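A reminder from the course coordinator: this example appears on the midterm review sheet, so study it carefully.

Given structure:
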């Protein structure tokens, strides 16, 4: 690649101050390039081990209070390469809620989702609809929906939270509202959206207009894992083996407009092909053990681990067990990239 040359640096420097007085500038030789040939992400590939996370979660459970005003007790998965967020567009955090606690009601323009990691007996209310949350369930809080959580069980409960905060911030579109009441008033019928659309294959006859946000708020472990089990007999994907995306049942598009959610299984002994794509990914290992290679770094993972893959990093997966499938929940920002026309992918061995 040829470097841009500047033979007029002295002239550029000479007019810089005058331009600056009028809120203008020209490119200076000290500026970084406007473009790079391919994405150069500051985000670093990362691996969080279950053993460390469990210890840290116990620690924040014992030491941090959960106070009114819409606060949450979360362990945020940080990225050393970024000033904010797990990836350039979203934060992945692990939320701890103890028996008897209430995480009080609020709403925000950032879209959020929860994937239940451990425990049972907590419920969340989303725009008045109450949902019980159990291990392996995916629960959505689409943009600007009210939500609060209460734990009625007797063991601490933890779940993964993902919010597209960095994306919403970059667009300067953050709104937040807290509620006076800790919990929302309940609609007469619990699980309404799940009763209407939760089968994924049918919907009520009434011809309701397609709403701006996904009308289905919960995807139970039972139905999503059954779908994955059925799909595992299909020809595998070369890069992801068996992977199913959670859908908005009315549009057929992704469950959230900006955040992609995928349930994935890797057959025993499988070694996928390597590829890269725009968009960042966070993996949560539900079960199994394997290795993910990201730009040459080997992450040996087991149940409860998290991994983060930066945009355009070459990655491949290996299931290191000879007899047990691995199951992973994946979150990415690919729906946002696709909507903006910025999604690209290629095999690692592509000639570019
Ligand atoms: O549970 O509403 O991890 O508002 C970060 C912000 C969780 C939540 C987070 C939130 C929530
Ligand atoms: Fe929230």
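Designed residues:
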């Amino acid at each position: 690649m040829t470097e841009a040359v500047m033979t007029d640096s002295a002239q550029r420097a000479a007019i810089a101050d005058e331009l600056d007085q009028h809120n203008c500038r020209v490119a200076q030789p000290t500026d970084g390039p406007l473009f790079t040939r391919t994405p150069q992400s500051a985000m670093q590939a990362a691996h969080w081990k279950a053993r460390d996370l469990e210890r840290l979660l116990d620690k924040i459970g014992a030491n941090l209070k959960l106070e009114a005003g819409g606060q949450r007790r979360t362990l945020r998965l940080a990225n050393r390469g970024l000033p904010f967020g797990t990836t350039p567009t979203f934060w992945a955090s692990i939320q701890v809620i103890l028996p008897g606690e209430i995480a009080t009601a609020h709403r925000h323009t950032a879209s959020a989702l929860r994937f239940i990691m451990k425990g049972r007996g907590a419920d969340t209310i989303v725009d008045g609809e109450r949902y019980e949350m159990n291990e392996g369930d995916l629960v959505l809080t689409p943009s600007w929906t009210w939500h609060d959580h209460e734990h009625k069980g007797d063991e601490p409960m933890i779940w993964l939270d993902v919010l597209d905060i960095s994306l919403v911030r970059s667009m300067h579109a953050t709104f937040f509202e807290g509620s006076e009441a800790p919990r929302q008033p309940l609609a007469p019928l619990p699980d309404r959206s799940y009763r209407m659309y939760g089968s994924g294959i049918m919907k009520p006859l009434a011809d309701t207009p397609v709403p701006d946000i996904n009308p289905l708020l919960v995807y139970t472990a039972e139905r999503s894992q059954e779908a994955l089990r059925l799909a595992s007999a299909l020809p595998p994907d070369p890069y992801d083996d068996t992977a199913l995306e959670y859908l908005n049942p009315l549009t057929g598009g992704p469950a959230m407009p900006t955040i992609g959610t995928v349930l994935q299984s890797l057959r025993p002994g499988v070694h996928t092909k390597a590829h890269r794509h725009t968009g960042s990914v966070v993996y949560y290992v539900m079960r199994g053990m394997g290795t993910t290679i990201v730009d040459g770094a080997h992450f040996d993972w087991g149940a409860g681990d998290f991994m983060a893959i930066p945009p355009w990093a070459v990655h491949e997966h290996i299931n290191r067990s000879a007899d047990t499938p691995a199951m992973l929940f994946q979150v990415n920002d690919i729906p946002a990239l696709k909507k903006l026309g910025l999604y690209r992918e290629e095999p690692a061995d592509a000639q570019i």
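The helical segments are 9-21, 50-63, 165-170, 192-197, 221-231, 334-339. The longest strand covers residues 91-97.
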